[in-house]
Known about the structure:
It contains 16 helices and 22 strands. The chain has helices at 3-6, 39-51, 80-91, 110-123, 152-164, 176-181, 202-205, 208-220, 234-243, 287-302, 307-314, 345-356, 376-388, 404-412, 426-435, 465-474, and strands spanning 19-21, 31-35, 56-59, 74-76, 100-105, 128-132, 135-137, 169-173, 191-194, 226-230, 247-250, 257-263, 266-273, 276-282, 325-328, 336-340, 363-367, 391-394, 420-422, 442-446, 453-456, 459-462. Helix 4 (110-123) packs across helix 10, helix 12 (345-356) packs parallel to helix 13 (376-388) and helix 13 (376-388) crosses helix 14 (404-412). The chain is globular.
Amino acid sequence: xxxxxxxxxxxxxxxxxSGISEMSKDVQAGDLFLAVGDSALQKTHIAEAxxxxxxxxxxxxxxxLGGDLSGVPLIYIGDLxxxxxxxxxxxxxxxxxxxxCVGITGTNGKTSIAYWVADLSSRIGFKTGYSGTLGWGxxxxxxxxxxxxxxxxxxxxxxxxxxxxxxSRTAIEVSSHALDQGRVSDVIFDIGVFSNLTRDHLDYxxxxxxxxxxxxxLFRDFDLKCAVVCIDDPFGKTIADYLGTRxxxxxxxxxxSWVARPSPSGYTVKWNTPWGDFExxxxxFCDFSIANLGAxxxxxxxxxxxxxxxxxxxxxxxxxxxxxxxxxxxxQSCPCVILDFAHTPEAVRLVLTSIRARTxxxxxxxxxxxxxxxxxxxxxxxxIVSELSDFVWLTSDNPRREDPMEIIRxxxxxxxxxxxxVSLDRKDAIxxxxxxxxxxxxxxxxGKGDESTQEVNGVFLPFSDRxxxxxxxxxxx
Length: 477
């Protein structure tokens, strides 16, 4: 695109731009680079973008940035921070106008709901992309992603590529950070989904009220055709009341509701919906997985899918990587090992409560807490795991730039029993937890889910709970 077509009405050079980026490390030759924020950091990022071949830089700084820009045009746009999503949308031909975009927000369940919306939609004939914690793209070929919701430019780029690849719908995990920072302000969402609101990210939002207000932005600031909202959650009920007729509720007393009976393979679930009732078997260990699936079912139905189509698709539902993922089951001559991403107090409580009801042996938990994140939840998580587990291995999660032993001390301060051991090395903790357990025990590996790295002092080291657990289990069977 010519720069003059992108910045209509402004006096700018006659330049052809082949791409657009707001991350200097992602700049490719011919790109337009958007530099936003602190002027000292901008100097560094502009220099890197220049080295990588940027043909022009837009900046929100009025003062001279200095440094050798080697003749690259530097254009001042004062409101660049709020315009970058719109600029990217224009550059990529407004892809969200052509895609049916489903935005999913809430503290817990975003990944499961988005993943199942993409899976079920594709199975009934709507090729659907996914964007979230697990990556982005078609589910069978996800590209890696570093954030739940990417920056304002990247999300437009992803939507453009999904459209080019033949998708007609996309399911997008929308974090509270992304809503607060305007990363998705220029995405045209057709359907919004709300799962729940529990404690998380208070290091950023400072209060539950501010956190809730950010989540509500998806339902108040966007012209949604419909919302799918959990009314088992008090804040969800508030959102549903605000939306009125533009909402489909789900939950035990929702428009989409269910009755679940434990079965040898998981649950037998009878679903009740405004479009008809049906029943199916689900290989789930936790009842909150049923609620997450209820949200996805709601999306399918409000967007034109039928109960008949759903019944067929649910028989082949995909296992979500790192979400209640079974590494070994009780039919093997070793403990049952399950990994899950649960890292908030409520998520940990729900996981362990559900599993507690399933085990005839002991419940063993391996858990840590992430560094440089909400410290207030650590003691609370410690109390929950000590009360719901028979034994706990406290270890590192992603310590980032914090002292991992200090994180563990904060988690341990919530323990009401002495049923734990400490192992700073997460690999050793996983190995000890599995090898010291018996056949009827269940070992829960919590916090990292599908992550393939461990962040320590700014370095991302290769690390997979799944790979380590499979290696240990392989030595036992």
